[in-house]
Amino acid sequence: MELGLYTFAETEPGPEATARRLRQLLAEAELADRLGLDVFGVGEHHRVEYAVSAPAIALAAIAARTERIRLTSAVTVLSSDDPIRVFQDFATIDLLSGGRAEIMAGRGSFVESFPLFGQDLDDYDELFAAKLELLLAARSAEHVSWPGSRHRAAIEHRGVYPRPLQDPLPVWVAVGGSPPSVIRAARLGLPIALAIIGGQPRSFAPLFDLHRQVARESGHGRLPVSVNSHTYVADTPEQARREFFPSYAQTMSALGRERGWPPLTRAQFEQGCGPHGHLFVGSPADVADKIVAQHGFFGHDRFLAQMTVGVMPAAQTLRSIELFASEVAPAVRERVAAAAPASSA
Fold first, then answer.
1. How far is CA 259 from the centre of its chain?
2. What is the SS3 assignment for 244-286?
3. Mean pLDDT per 10-residue segment, the chain (345 residues)
4. So where are the chain's domains?
5. Closest-CA residue to 292 (of 328, 345, 344)
6. Are 197 and 230 in contact (CB under 8 A)?
7. Are 111 and 47 in contact (CB under 8 A)?
8. Cα-based distances in Å from 281 to 168, 214, 237, 242, 315
9. What are the helix (H) ranges across 55-204?
């Protein structure tokens, strides 16, 4: 089982604060690489409270300062981007990193990129479907022929360069709990990443079952699946909750105001931290237990921890990464591996 991190690089507003946050981002990735985590992901947002609107540039910088960790977007908002440019960007990261790049393609949880890049929100799903098709065409052949769509002209046997070291360049689809999205990915032979950031995690298990069923029926066999969740690790559960709650509550309540939700309460937070909740907040043993428990009903191949939700002190974030990499990850790998023979018998 792969274990890694992803971040949206939350920041205070202003160029100096953003520059400082980007330096911290590099430090987080270097630590994760040095301590043996498998994956590091960087999100894409076009809002003042996030430092990264161009994840490919951030990942290229990280590629130059790491040695083995896989590098993924989390996510690339493909609906409002150009698929050929996305492929070229990540092929370049793949070359710089010695074959460690991945694309996690999604439609995004915010809508700012659509008017920013001249896209119509009414075309939300249509844009993603057409652009995913073109991205996969660029991935599959050096010279691309594509019939075009209502939103983009056709391409007639044009070369797309550079070509990545990995063939094919890994592409994951980030899904938000929609069965049609899961089915589309499975039919295309693509792995999925599901962000579980609320509700009862076990209720998402049918989506993974659906993905495996459709993939099998489509002739692709078993495809990888990932769970991505809010995570924070400290030496004790009390310390973890005390340190994580303020920024988490502020961020989730702010998002709630935008979307018509009530403010997050401490009781809701505590419920989420419980053994059946969606938050991986606690001691290393607590977090490892929850990942292993979820693996029992998801059978997922990858777990990515979103280590910051809102602006958090850099030292606390680095300590959380250290505990996740040095204590949580080895325990999870060992227990999942030990359970595998029994589950396959």
1. 22
2. HHHHHHHHHHHHHHHHCCCCCCHHHHHHHHCCCCCCEEECHHH
3. 98 97 98 98 97 98 98 97 98 98 92 93 92 98 96 96 98 94 97 95 97 98 97 98 97 92 95 96 98 97 96 98 98 95 56
4. 2-344
5. 328
6. yes
7. no
8. 36, 33, 7, 10, 17
9. 55-63, 83-97, 113-116, 124-140, 179-187
Q: Is 258:306 a contact under the CB 8 Å cutoff?
A: no
| Residues counted in the chain | 345
CATH number for 2-344 (one of 3.40.50.2300, 3.90.550.60, 3.40.50.450, 3.20.20.30): it is 3.20.20.30
- Find out whether 67 and 78 touch, Cβ atoms under 8 Å: no
Instruction: Report which of 281, 279, 285 is spatially closest to residue 327, judged by C-alpha positions.
Output: 285
Tokens of 293: 């428990």
Helix 124-140 × helix 83-97 angle, to 10°: 50
pTM given for the model: 0.96
Distance CA 109, CA 77 (A): 9
Residue written as tokens 């911290």? 24
Measured CA to CA, the distance from residue 89 to residue 72 in angstroms comes to 12
> Is 226 in a helix, a strand, or coil?
strand
CA atoms of 147 and 295, how far apart (whole Å): 41
Q: What is the DSSP letter of 204?
A: G
How far is Cα of residue 126 from the mean position of the Cα atoms in its chain?
Answer: 22
